[in-house]
Amino acid sequence: MAGFRGKTSDAGEAKVAGERSLLLGIGISAIGIGMYVPFSLVFFHHVTGLSFTLVGLVMTVTGVAGLAFMPLAGSAVDRFGAKRVNLVLYGIRALGFALYPFAGSLPAFAAVALVTALADRSFSVVQQSLIGEVARGAARDRLQASTRALQNAGMGAGALLVSGVLALWGTGAFTWTAWANSLAFALAGLLVARVRPVPAEQSDPCAGRPAAGYRMVLRDRPFLGLTAANFLTALGYSALSVLFPLYLSTWLAAPDSLTGAAFTLNTALCAGIGVLVAGRVRRSGARRTRSAALGALLFAAAFAGQIVLGTLRPGQSATLVALLVIVVVYTLGELVHSPSGGALSVSAAPEPVRGRYLATYQLSYSLATALAPSLFTALLAVDGRLPWAVLTAAALGAALALLRLERHLPTEAVHAGPPAAAAARPPVTAAA
Predict the structure, then answer these.
(1) How would you classify residue 137: left for phi > 0, otherwise alpha for psi between -120 and 50, otherwise beta?
(2) What pTM value is reported for the model?
């Protein structure tokens, strides 16, 4: 492919220049995230000295503000490049966590939390754009799988690390944890700085073509369909953390310890076999739309299993075995869907406006995450099996939509191999 001069692996996939540094940086930043996300309210309460109520209010407001900032982050990627914006966000996060221990008043905490939330919420958009900027073809799928595995492993390691620190030194160690997070983000930024983007493919500038912005995204019906399909699947991604614990404790009357076991199993599988599963899917030559649809079907099978389990309600031992099997099927769906779906969205986005496209796509995850708690609790109040039925229908709908969209998406997005020139999108020019 023009301009792509990376090394080639035994599997025939081009290696990314600075790939090890990129992945190491992602792993280190994931450790930092794992050191505070599981304890968010407690973490910021002890670091700042503010009440839980104030901390929760500030986190909610700044989180919503972060969602509103995502489109601007997409525009920044298109203007300055994903690598530069990625480094800026790492710097903001490093500075924010360095300042948290000094933000003892409400205005100070709100200011630091706002700036940090803007960087946190936009980071997924920029990181996805960076993968598109540094890799082509099947290398994107490989990086998607490696990134997800490292994020799961890093967050698990970070949670274990901070648990040990708190056990030894008590809640006063939260301050040192904040500074450790700052160091982790700074080090991750230094490592990512070593990554070299792939030179843009040469194309006819098409003088006179109108500037492309978010209006172009809104006119791209296949991509909007892809985003809508991802919203349906993203609801399923929220099930394990939001619905599963409530379902266990209320409908199945199962011990809360099962929730921890399910999370542990999911994290271990994602970190341990995520790359292997994605590699097997990639080497099979499956189209990204079809492998993503397979992941959605596995989600649907896991959700349908919950309906059966909730109907039969067997004894505790049988429930334990059934839940672990369901979590395994669910995790396989996640491991099959995530790399293919991520690479599909990156490759379906025209390069000059990739940031705007991916900001739109990532909103499907954010909206699903925001909607999930209220939707699941409302459905659960009617019948414990109802939310799983809705999720089953959503996953099946996502799989069907992906298959129907296949012939409307660019060939280079559907296939991990070299794109067919005839199906390439016309070149566009990013707006200022």
Answers:
(1) left
(2) 0.82
